[in-house]
Write a structure and sequence with these properties.
The chain is of the alpha+beta class. It has helices at residues 3-56, 125-140; strands at residues 61-64, 69-74, 81-87, 94-103, 106-113. Strand 1 (61-64) and strand 2 (69-74) form a beta hairpin.
Length: 141
């Protein structure tokens, strides 16, 4: 092995890393666009309906929509919430359902994919409703 062979391999490795980085950046941009549409068209409207139903049943909750998140927060148990967020840390971006339940001094948190293996554009109102209700159950029981 001589220096020119090593240099060629280094150049190929650098070129491949740049190509892969560019592809990942483009995929993240598409995922962010899809997620923003999902939030506005699916997740936020469903969470508003859940909020209305919870209030009608006597459960004090609030809806928060900081950038990139929709969160139902218990006003009765501060620090307890269910939220939807975009996770871009893996190979494929995914919507996560996070929940945090505070009982006295104890806090229990969970995090799971909204719909494992499904692309963002295919997520439905039913997916959101089922996932949020499953996570909110400990807060209303």
């Amino acid at each position: 092995m001589n220096v020119s062979e090593v240099r060629q391999k280094v150049q190929r490795t650098i070129a491949e890393a740049k190509r892969r980085s560019s592809e990942q950046r483009a995929a993240r941009e598409v995922a962010q666009r899809d997620y923003d549409q999902f939030l506005e068209g699916v997740a936020i409207p469903v969470c508003r309906m859940i909020l209305t139903a919870l209030k009608a049943e006597g459960h004090p909750f609030a809806l928060a929509t900081p950038p990139g998140v929709v969160r139902l927060e218990s006003t009765h148990a501060p620090g307890s919430f269910v939220e939807l967020v975009l996770d871009e840390s893996g190979d494929t971006p995914a919507v996560l359902v996070r929940s945090n339940v505070r009982l006295g001094r104890r806090t229990a948190g969970t995090e799971r994919p909204l719909a494992r293996g499904r692309a963002l554009p295919s997520l439905t109102r039913e997916d959101v409703l089922d996932a949020v209700l499953a996570e909110i159950e400990p807060l209303v029981g």
